[in-house]
Amino acid sequence: MNNPHHLNPTSLKSRFTTRFLRALTKIRAQKPISSSSPTEIFRRYRRIKVAADKSMAYSVRSRRIWSRAMLWKLRSRSYRRQDPCSGRRSGKTNQAIMKKSSNENTTTRREDGVGFVEEADELRQLVPGGETMNLCNLLDETAHYIKCLTTQVQLFSPIGKG
Amino acid sequence: MQPCSREMQAMNSLLSPTQQIPLQDLQPNGNSGTHQAQIHNPQFDPTSSHDDFLDQMLSTLPSCPWSDLKSPWDPPKSDETPPSNHDNNVGFHYDEILASKLRQHQINGGGGGTTAAMKMMMQQQMMLPGRLIAAAGGGGLTMPLHNDIVDGSSFKSPNQQGGEGSVQALYNGFGAGSLHGTNNQSPNQPQHFHHPQGGNMQTQSFGATAGTVMNQSQASGSTTGGAPAQLKQRVRARRGQATDPHSIAERLRRERIAERMKALQELVPNANKTDKASMLDEIIDYVKFLQLQVKVLSMSRLGGAAAVAPLVADMPSEGGDCVQTTAGGGGSLQRNSNGNQPSANNDSLTVTEHQVAKLMEEDMGSAMQYLQGKGLCLMPISLATAISTATCHSRNPMINKGSSSNHPLLQSNGDGPSSPSMSVLTVQSATMGNGGLDGSAKDAASVSKP
């Protein structure tokens, strides 16, 4: 497919596209499209979605909190799948850390004079890794996350037509 | 930033070697405590150390030839001096430099509380000779605001260096002590700075010999700062000019948040809301919409035949991150932002439909909004079939929302094996391609523009 969008070889779009296409081809190589049972479809969907998320997160690297959180989740999930023992361990640490951060959040409650607590909490649930951010960083991460999501959408739409 | 004429004349008279202002004349003018923008005279408090300082200052004045003062400056100075009423005995050309540097510093570093003080400082310093001021102007120019004589002692060491370095260190020392919020002194600051600054500048320009004089001037300045402040009551800082570090931090934080909200507003369409809360709601809805879009697109275009419709109906609501394999068919994938959480049942779909039905009974608008939030729209069946046949002939057949057919209200959406869902998705993807759900449904038998 031709890429009229990719004017800058190092932009987020191009990085994401290359990674995602690589992942896609790998998935396509793994499984033929013949399967039509819902289970297979869902599995395939999940793999694709994971690939999309992973490629997006990797193209952002660790420069953003949400990408770090997403990468961490992906890694912990893959570890969990491979090795149940390590999964348990990582699950525990995962839960411990998440609980700790959520406890901190709930106790501090982020009521720092701006007054957008409900919306901020909802946004925190939407943006990966948002539980551990104060409002300022949360808005920043949201902006970048929105940018990445729009990039993904833009790149997805021409793919299906071809 | 033009210096007050009266101040100019006062300072000029002070500086001119021909005149000697007796200290007694100056004393009654001290501590008028008036508005900060108006300084009629140098504020000389009747303190003994002050007297000593003044005496020394005035005594050293005639000793230093004015030519020395002029020498740092280039000969053609008169044209550069600010027009008004400068005494051209000494070229005040550095005023320009100083003013620009002060302004720069003011813009860069000045907190709100010191803005007025710094303005006054600028005015005052523009009157004073000494190119050293220009050098110091680049450094910290925030003035000390507090009563104690800490600054006085701290200046001892830099003062002994003499020359430009000492002035700069002096100013840095000033800057260190400046923001120790004394709100009640904000009206008084300029008055007190006027004199210490005047004294400092002059003595500094006279070289290292002014070291001791500097100390005394600092002490006197600090003490002058102390006495009148106690006389005044605590004045509430004006809005936007608080010098309390907490409020400054709060203000900075609020500004950062506001600036980020503005950036987000540009990203999110429909950013015509001025209210921050509604803007946040809009942002949240947009993020949900984008996540849904990615999900749908990845499924419909990349995943092949998939249960896209149930996907579409899902709302990312749950937190947590548990991985469940999808056993059994026809399930709906519940995706949330935190991870992949498929659950194999149709409940979410029917729940959505029930909710939409309920909403539609009460208020059509909210029902439409709800659907829109989910990325759905209602359309007449005929149009849906037309669209689907027109655009999706090459696509894989999609699994419809099987459970929706038993619901009367959503008949338009759930009718038929594949077309409505496909039409919904088609519309969705088409509108997505056009950059958003601008063609979303408007009424019950609504038509969405592809």
UniProtKB/TrEMBL annotation, chain A:
InterPro entries: IBH1-like, IBH1_N
The keyword GTP-binding is annotated on this UniProt entry: no
Disordered: annotated span: 82-112
GO terms for biological process, alphabetical: regulation of DNA-templated transcription
Domain IBH1-like N-terminal: from-to ranges: 10-77
Record-given protein name: IBH1-like N-terminal domain-containing protein
Keywords: Transcription, Transcription regulation
Highest rank taxon of the organism: Eukaryota
Presence of the UniProt keyword Metal-binding in the record: no
TrEMBL record, chain B:
Gene Ontology biological process terms in this record: root hair cell development
Residue stretches making up the BHLH domain: 241-290
Keyword vocabulary terms for this entry: DNA-binding, Nucleus, Transcription, Transcription regulation
UniProt key word Transmembrane: no
Species this protein is from: Gossypium tomentosum
Protein's name according to its UniProt entry: BHLH domain-containing protein
Subcellular location: Nucleus
Pfam families (UniProt xref): HLH (PF00010)
Entry GO terms, CC: nucleus
InterPro entries membership: bHLH_dom, HLH_DNA-bd_sf, IND-like
Residue ranges, compositional bias (Polar residues): 22-47, 180-191, 199-222, 333-347, 401-432
GO molecular function annotations of the record: DNA-binding transcription factor activity, RNA polymerase II-specific; protein dimerization activity; RNA polymerase II cis-regulatory region sequence-specific DNA binding
Region annotation (Disordered) ranges: 22-54, 68-91, 156-245, 322-347, 398-450
SUPFAM superfamilies: HLH, helix-loop-helix DNA-binding domain (SSF47459)
Superkingdom of origin: Eukaryota
Transmembrane domains' residue ranges: none
